[in-house]
Amino acid sequence: MSPPDSKLLELIAPVQDGVERMRAVLSEDLGVESKAVADMTAHIARFRGKQLRGALVLLVGQATENTSDEHPEVASIVELIHLATLVHDDVLDGAKVRRRVACVNQRWDNQVAVLLGDFLYARAFGRSTQLSSRLCSEVLARTTQRICAAEIDQAASRYEFEMPQERYEAIAGAKTASLYAAACELGARYPEGREDIGAEMRRLGWDIGLAFQIIDDCLDVVADGEVVGKDVGNDIQDGKVTLPVLHIYRSASEELRGRIRDVYMQQGLDKRAERLREVCDLEPGVEYALARARELVDGAMLRLRSLPASPARTAMENLAQYVLQRRW
Amino acid sequence: MSPPDSKLLELIAPVQDGVERMRAVLSEDLGVESKAVADMTAHIARFRGKQLRGALVLLVGQATENTSDEHPEVASIVELIHLATLVHDDVLDGAKVRRRVACVNQRWDNQVAVLLGDFLYARAFGRSTQLSSRLCSEVLARTTQRICAAEIDQAASRYEFEMPQERYEAIAGAKTASLYAAACELGARYPEGREDIGAEMRRLGWDIGLAFQIIDDCLDVVADGEVVGKDVGNDIQDGKVTLPVLHIYRSASEELRGRIRDVYMQQGLDKRAERLREVCDLEPGVEYALARARELVDGAMLRLRSLPASPARTAMENLAQYVLQRRW
After folding, report:
1. Which residues are CB-neighbours of A111 under 8 A, at least 6 positions away?
2. What span, in angstroms and rounded, lies between the C-alpha atoms of A273 and A267?
């Protein structure tokens, strides 16, 4: 197990039993009769990743004194939705490696990756219809619509070098933070009622998720692919202009702007992240983006402070900080 | 309006009010805030097609004396699921035209088509969570899993020229007939109970849907693309060996088998359906497949006869026959 995982395990210790049950349920959920499908679900189980979203369902449940027998199941359904989005994201990005494991679209092909993602979404919704309350189905169906619409908006906003920061955040938030928000809302509300604390926790999840996405966007332009365990420079290749670049572009000379656009748009260019670092100093952009992520996490910390002190609350505080420190 | 549509309108006259409500709900369901998404949903509304599956929800409801205010909504959700599968199918098939309208993957690109399909699935599940009963969510989530698993199985069975007919039918059925089966089950059961009549109508829908798919597979090898309003020869291009070809292959000489395989597998070959018709007489295979489709429809007719006589029952009888006659 790699160090980040063991650090994370430590963080989520207060809900360890729940996390283990979540993982057991998830393994079951990935089990299927069809051999062709089973081969694939066994493969993607290998990039199960940090399972932060599932852990948040359990931590928020405990921190808001709202635990139920079904929380681990809700957590596993949130993770299934996340897995489905990952599989389709890899198709969309033409990615080759995720967590040092070949992506489904590489190991099989894009067609099958589309189908597997569809299958995982359907499986997640199917599981949610078996729960005693409909809240999980409702929240996750709404969230999934939002995620997909945001990804379409993002695709429609390629090469928008002058996109306002609000729009960047709205899209990045809907794309990524909305599932964090849903996880926290479900943790606080499932199986029913508790709208006020649900809304509060939803915003908390949004802030943490948006910070997470901003860090991700920074890593895509500056990280070393070897260290993060997946391809970098995808956003540039794909025409996604993210916060660190938007910031640099804002104050760049016309000449530098032209060179930045070239790195994004020139046909057949290789290693675009490296090229971008050659044409401009990205450091101030990354600093600016990190400061924004820090601001979001500070907001989350404030909300957390309104909850009664508990090991789960402490874990969430650490988790919020951990999002800022992640380098992979 | 083209002749097939007016013929169909006549067939579904007993549930015309419901169909109109279904269409109104569907238009609403396709309305979204995001401009990028709205552009696309407006586009796909143009290939809304025959809406057979939605009509079946309403017809079976009426024929089994199980009508509710929510039946049109259930019907529109079934159609949304169908639209989602169409959008993803077009990505998978690399199709260019559907109902004489450019496919989403052509008008935009594959990435966006994947996202739009995801959005439509999520929208469908989202709508189903708003209904008074969970039955629709349950049945459709189960059905969607089945459809996706079957498509994966189909992809894993490419170029299987000696596939047993049972396996062909299991895959073709799960891929296509299961949504017909779900539509009929929901028509008979929604909002609750009525398991026996539900199971009976489910089988009825399965038979009609499988017949529909068999006809579709025949059209793909023998039809004229101009007449059917979409590309033909896709199955061959994609390595899907369907019933008419399986039948010919079964009794073909080794030499002919080799030539058939060549048409499927030779790199860069153009117009494979035409090529296939050049190397062998497909007529006996198509006759065999049509006879099987007829047998399935006969089974469906028998089941229908167990229902009390009504305009809706008559409409379904006509509809079952119509499936056999369709040439587009």
Report:
1. B91, B92, B155
2. 15
As a CATH number, domain B3-134+158-325 is 1.10.600.10
For residue A99, name the pLDDT band (cuts at 50, 70, 90): low
Question: Residue B21 corresponds to which amino acid?
Answer: R
Nearest to B305 by CA among B317, B293, B319: B317
Give the residue-averaged pLDDT of A10-19.
86
State pLDDT tens for residues B189-242.
999 999 999 999 999 999 999 999 999 999 999 877 666 666 778 899 889 999
User: What residues have CB less than 8 Å from B256, skipping those under 6 apart?
Assistant: B279, B280
Q: Where are the alpha helices (DSSP H) in B35-193?
A: 35-45, 52-63, 71-93, 104-107, 110-129, 135-156, 165-172, 178-189
pLDDT of residue A223: 78
How far is A314 from B152, CA to CA, in rounded Å?
44
Contacts with A101 (C-beta within 8 Å, 6 or more apart), sequence order: A43, A46, A47
Residues of B in contact with A123 (CB under 8 A): 145
- Domain A3-320 fold: Farnesyl Diphosphate Synthase (1.10.600)
Distance (Å, whole) CA A21 – CA A71: 9
Instruction: Answer whether B114 sits within 8 Å of A92, measured CB to CB.
Output: yes
d(CA B81, CA A126): 14
Distance CA A305, CA A28 (A): 37
Token code pair at residue B248? 């010919």
Residues of B within 8 A of A128 (CB-CB) are 141
B80 vs B60: CA distance, rounded Å: 19
Could you tell me which of A73, A284, A272, A82 has the C-alpha nearest to residue A180? A82
Nearest to B115 by CA among B54, B37, B45: B37
Residue A309 is classified by DSSP as: P
Helical axes A243-250 vs A195-222, angle rounded to 10°: 70
Residue with tokens 């656009």: A261
What are the residues of chain B with a beta carbon less than 8 Å away from any beta carbon of chain A? 32-37, 40, 88, 91-92, 108, 110-112, 114-119, 121-123, 125-126, 128-130, 134, 137-138, 141-142, 144-145, 147-149, 151-153, 155-156
Continuous segment of H or E residues that includes residue A102 = strand A101-102
Residue A98 backbone phi and psi in degrees, to 5:
-135, 125
- Give the residues across from B98 on adjacent strands: B101
Chain A to chain B Cβ contacts (< 8 Å): 137
For residue B309, what is the DSSP state? P
What pTM did the predictor assign?
0.89
The structural domains of chain A, with segments of one domain joined by +, span: 3-320
